[in-house]
Amino acid sequence: xxxxxxxxxxxxxxxxxxxxxxxxxxxxxxxxxxxxxxxxxxxxxxxxxxxxxxxxxxxxxxxxxxxxxxxxxxxxxxxxxxxxxxxxxxxxxxxxxxxxxxxxxxxxxxxxxxxxxxxxxxxxxxxxxxxxxxxxxxxxxxxxxxxxxxxxxxxxxxxxxxxxxxxxxxxxxxxxxxxxxxxxxxxxxxxxxxxxxxxxxxxxxxxxxxxxxxxxxxxxxxxxxxxxxxxxxxxxxxxxxxxxxxxxxxxxxxxxxxxxxxxxxxxxxxxxxxxxxxxxxxxxxxxxxxxxxxxxxxxxxxxxxxxxxxxxxxxxxxxxxxxxxxxxxxxxxxxxxxxxxxxxxxxxxxxxxxxxxxxxxxxxxxxxxxxxxxxxxxxxxxxxxxxxxxxxxxxxxxxxxxxxxxxxxxxxxxxxxxxxxxxxxxxxxxxxxxxxxxxxxxxxxxxxxxxxxxxxxxxxxxxxxxxxxxxxxxxxxx
Length: 478
Description:
Order of helices and strands: HHHHHHHHHHEHEEHHHEEHHHHHHH
CATH topology of the largest domain: Tetracycline Repressor, domain 2
Strand content: 5-15%
Helix content: 55-70%
């Protein structure tokens, strides 16, 4: 926890230092610009370079991820000022680190030559992440600049959907044969000079690149060097195919504490690997996407995007909210006469709807999480519905009773208290049923159950809660 806090403090401190240098740069330039002095243009140019050099030195020592954090936190004009100071050889790394929305603003500010130079610094799997955001002419020039092997790898990676293992696959792998000794394997590794990042095992293949097993580095270090690779390697490694779902791969990495895992085609030929850093990026992106989806946002939004672009990102679920609010208002309109006769109903009905919405969102969150973990499916749906209805029944009787008693104390009517308890219980039962069914139905029809589930459950509990409470009040109190 302390390390996380120190990291946050460091990021915040770096951001504040960059902002201070930007402010200082603008202030000094404004003062110099307004001065009347000999060789004004020369002095102004020297001051400009001196101030920018200080800011550039600060950026040069920062990790690409930290520079990306700073760029995301700056308004567009300042962001582009800072981006111009980043050394060209670091452009590619930083473009990979920034969010998709911010990346678009940076790419829009770069010419074709700059984009091509930035892309050429990246590995093939990294190019696959960047390629969709590149202009078509730049992407074509990039393809033409690659050798045949890397061109084929890039085209292969881009052919997979975003949620497939092939889309996060890494081609930087180290392979050995099973019929060599561990001593020969060690000499081979030393000749390589360095290993790809996150290498915890070597992939054992035959002369046709068919995967035979994996050799963990820890076994290589502690085993007799005269032993053959075939005697020490593991043949039961976790293996993926490019068409596998990336979410399932991420769960396997968590379940088996993997650092890397081989990817093979339908003939068991080794085509790449998946690494833990790619899995972590996938998990983070999906968590952010689910968080945005729960709020009704269609995509990640640049904090400093234009008003119009932000409106385009947010309007869809707001429109749905408007429709559901109109439905709820019409439900209330059906009982205007009842509300006029018992004014207390107007004060109490938002409580029934609000608590129902909260209860429904709790159920929905549990079901969405279960679907994400693969623990919820049609075989246990009946048990889930029964369990959630039982929880809601007990909560409804308990808190409905509390609310009914409060209503009796406030308004002196035990009938109103009973209606309040009954309405609360029925609305919580409705919330539980819909909280299970909405994400299950959305998942069944191929939609992301996290997208808009909370909006839909709130709409159901609002309209349902108003109808149940005002309907019971009309029947038993008027």
